[in-house]
Amino acid sequence: MGAGGRMNEATTDKDVLKRVPTAKTPFEISDLKKAIPPHCFKRSLATSSYYLFRDIAICYTFYYLTSNYIPLLHKPFNYIAWPIYWFCQGSSFMEIWSIGHDLGHHAFSEYQWLDDTLGFVLHSSFLTPYFSFKYSHRSHHAHTNSMEYDEVWIPKRKADTLYSEVLNNPLGNLFMTVVRLLLSFPMYFTFNIHGRECDGFVSHFYPQRPLFNDSERKLIWLSDAGMLVAFYALYKIAAATSAT
């Protein structure tokens, strides 16, 4: 407030709780779904394929321009061009990864076998265990915002002393943002960082994880194999292009 104005009082937990709606909503989730036009639920293979090939074409265009023209730039322009390429290509890769995510939701086509096959290839190429993520992500959507049962990105509690006393400030949030951008993705898959607490060792690469049932465990091994093939392919590419 300006001079002479009334300062806002600190918001307490009780004030926040008073604003939390407790009355039953006048509609159900099914009512929201009925309000969506039926054609929005149709999974067009042609439309989905168009977006996939479009994104692949964009990625190839960035690669072609970069490999042919950035080496021709003089310093310091080449130092500026490379980070721009990383950002643009990374954003384009994320689009393809997101299509792999949609394939896991069976949203690409009407054919489950096609969605799983294509999703396995795409996500393995981006070092993501397709079936492992598909099954854990299913649990996330079933329990979104549940403090007890959500699969990932569970809100921190005040009882978490490290977070509330050390990291819950602008500098701590900046640090955690950098860590999440650089490490959270592989750490979540490998060690269940940011995931729901479970008994025993938990990893997307470990078929005996409590989240997976017996009928799914063989496909977890298949996801691991896809990752190994992708790592080997990257090694061969690096060796062939003298990038090692």
TrEMBL record:
- Where found in the cell? Membrane
Its transmembrane ranges are: none
**Which is one Pfam family of this protein?**
FA_desaturase
Is-annotated flag, keyword Disulfide bond? no
Q: Which GO terms describe its molecular function?
A: oxidoreductase activity
- Cite a GO CC annotation: membrane
Keywords annotated in UniProt: Oxidoreductase
The segment(s) forming the Fatty acid desaturase domain are: 81-235
Q: Which GO terms describe its biological process?
A: lipid metabolic process
The answer to whether the entry has keyword Cytoplasm is no
The record's comment on protein family reads: Belongs to the fatty acid desaturase type 1 family.
The protein depicted here goes by the name Fatty acid desaturase domain-containing protein
- Lineage start: Eukaryota, Viridiplantae, Streptophyta, Embryophyta, Tracheophyta
